[in-house]
Specification:
Layout lengths: L2 E3 L11 E3 L13 E3 L6 E2 L2 E2 L11 E3 L12 E7 L8 E6 L4 E5 L9 E2 L12 E3 L8 E3 L1 E2 L6 E3 L7 E7 L2 E5 L5 E5 L3 E4 L15 H6 L55 E3 L3
């Protein structure tokens, strides 16, 4: 997909851009969509997540992250736009008549065959266990716990590199540079996800953010001391403390990962 720059007709259009993405499919199965309830960052009326507000109505597409339809070949019927993620999705029709959505990798086209299994061809869109993949394979939608469904590598332009296999784990390099151990029994989908230009999109005006459900973010130094740890002071003042803090007084810069985190033992090399 290509990045489109708007013509400079108005100030809000001057630097704005958008990504040419797949369109909605009116013939898509209705049982794969549900209304996505909007909470606007609130729990029982109290704001628990800031900077979330009203947005355009959305349907949630039920994505097959598990890829557990083993040995049944499917064909990509359509590539569709999904408002809930920055990567497009592919509607797959299987030989038994079942329809499912999967994340659309780069270069996957309508009419392409896809299959999941223990030992299948190393081709874009196919899913298999890490233990059966050759070293150097680019993968996405990787399971942290075998059978739970893909949790890692699901955003636009993302891929992980299979670097080594040391039973019972495989070493994968994440886009951040972190090298992490995953169980060899975990499923992963082959290929790199599309829409890699998403990171270069400039919304251009506040209204486009509001349509996405994003409310304004105010700098901590511009607030009063009761509202933020950086607040207060006369005129333009800095952070006023040794380490930058979050609104809730927790460190915001540097190594903020908990030392006692259970999954820390699976990290071979930390991200920079």
């Amino acid at each position: 997909m290509s990045l489109v720059q708007y013509k400079e007709k108005t100030n809000t259009r001057r630097f704005a851009s958008h990504l040419k993405r797949a369109v909605k499919n009116p013939d898509a199965p209705k049982n794969l969509r549900v209304i996505l309830k909007k909470h606007s960052g609130r729990s029982f009326g109290t704001v628990t997540v800031r900077h979330q507000g009203g947005r355009h109505k959305r349907y949630y597409r039920l994505i097959d992250f598990r890829r557990d339809k083993f040995g049944v070949e499917g064909k990509v019927v359509a590539l569709e736009y999904d408002p809930n993620r920055n990567v497009d999705i592919a509607l797959v029709k299987y030989q038994d008549g079942d329809y499912r959505y999967i994340l659309a990798p780069k270069d996957l086209q309508t009419g392409d065959p896809v299959i999941a299994g223990d030992k299948v061809e190393v081709r874009t869109g196919n899913a298999m266990r890490l233990k059966n993949m050759p070293i150097g394979t680019l993968v996405h939608n990787v399971e942290l716990i075998p059978g739970k469904g893909g949790q890692i590598g699901r955003s636009a332009g993302t891929s992980l590199i299979l670097q080594a296999k040391q039973p019972p784990f495989a070493n994968l390099k994440l886009p951040s540079g972190e090298i992490r151990m995953f169980p060899l029994e975990s499923l992963a989908t082959i290929g790199t996800l599309g829409n890699e230009e998403t990171k270069n999109v400039n919304l251009g005006k506040a209204g486009r953010s509001r349509h996405l459900g994003i409310r304004p973010t105010v700098r901590g130094t511009a607030q009063d001391p009761r509202s933020h740890a950086h607040g207060g002071g006369e005129g333009r003042s800095g952070v006023g403390r040794v380490q930058p803090m979050t609104k809730y007084g927790r460190p915001a810069v540097g190594k903020t990962r908990k030392q006692s985190k259970q999954s820390g033992k699976y990290i071979i090399k930390r991200r920079k």
